[in-house]
């Protein structure tokens, strides 16, 4: 009888040990699943963070592009308004527009500067505004006016980074202006525009230094030429 109870006790011990092992196995399984869940949760959080950063970057990019469009729109709206006024006051079928009289942008320098600083690529936008007017002169030449000089002056204030392809476009415009200057040095606005392009877009090394130096004599009445004289490296030579 004693042996029977001992066997019964041992059987219960083995049963308990079996259940204990089963419980431990379930605990390990739960811990493994918990670990997998935590890793999956961390991965999902990281994925969402990356996605949010990407969306934020795209949002900032869209905002920058929207500001670029607003600046260009202000240019064209002002030009269209001016052309309508010209049509009303002129019975001729064709328009002759003096680029130097155009006021394409706000006259407030702070407003222009703020607009430029909000653009993703202000150096390109400014070139687009100068190179793509709605109306051109009779010989299809690019117009450089006082409003463009004001725009270039403010662009110079922010010292923008110039992409290689933008510099190439600026070089084309500079060469075009240089040819116009060679034909007519009396237009000091074109001279100043040319000098500003050299300074802002880093084009000075591509032009003859002595020829550039002589151009300052044709634009001395413009205040910005004093600053350009220094930025283009002529201040040391004059001293």
Automatic annotation (TrEMBL):
PANTHER family: A_TM021B04.7 PROTEIN, FRIGIDA-LIKE PROTEIN 3-RELATED. The keyword Translocase does not apply. The keyword Coiled coil applies. Keywords: Coiled coil, Developmental protein, Differentiation, Flowering. Residues 45-72 form a coiled coil. Pfam families: Frigida. This is FRIGIDA-like protein. One of its GO terms (biological process) is cell differentiation. It comes from the Eukaryota. Belongs to the Frigida family. It comes from Trifolium pratense.
């Amino acid at each position: 009888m004693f042996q029977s109870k001992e066997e019964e006790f041992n059987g219960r011990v083995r049963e308990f040990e079996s259940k204990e092992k089963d419980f431990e196995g379930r605990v390990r399984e739960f811990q493994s699943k918990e670990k997998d869940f935590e890793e999956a949760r961390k991965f999902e959080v990281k994925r969402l963070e990356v996605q949010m950063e990407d969306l934020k970057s795209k949002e900032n990019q869209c905002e920058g592009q929207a500001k670029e469009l607003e600046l260009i729109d202000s240019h064209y709206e002002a030009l269209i308004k001016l052309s309508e006024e010209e049509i009303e006051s002129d019975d001729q079928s064709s328009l002759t527009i003096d680029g130097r009289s155009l006021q394409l942008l706000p006259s407030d320098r702070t407003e222009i500067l703020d607009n430029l600083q909000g653009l993703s690529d202000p150096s390109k936008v400014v070139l687009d505004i100068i190179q793509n007017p709605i109306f051109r002169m009779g010989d299809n030449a690019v117009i450089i006016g006082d409003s463009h000089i004001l725009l270039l002056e403010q662009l110079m204030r922010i010292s923008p980074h110039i992409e290689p392809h933008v510099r190439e476009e600026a070089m084309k415009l500079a060469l075009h202006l240089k040819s116009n200057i060679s034909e007519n040095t009396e237009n000091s606005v074109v001279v100043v525009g040319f000098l500003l392009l050299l300074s802002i877009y880093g084009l000075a090394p591509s032009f003859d230094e002595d020829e550039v130096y002589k151009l300052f004599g044709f634009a001395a009445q413009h205040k910005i030429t004093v600053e350009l004289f220094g930025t283009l490296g002529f201040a040391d030579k004059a001293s």
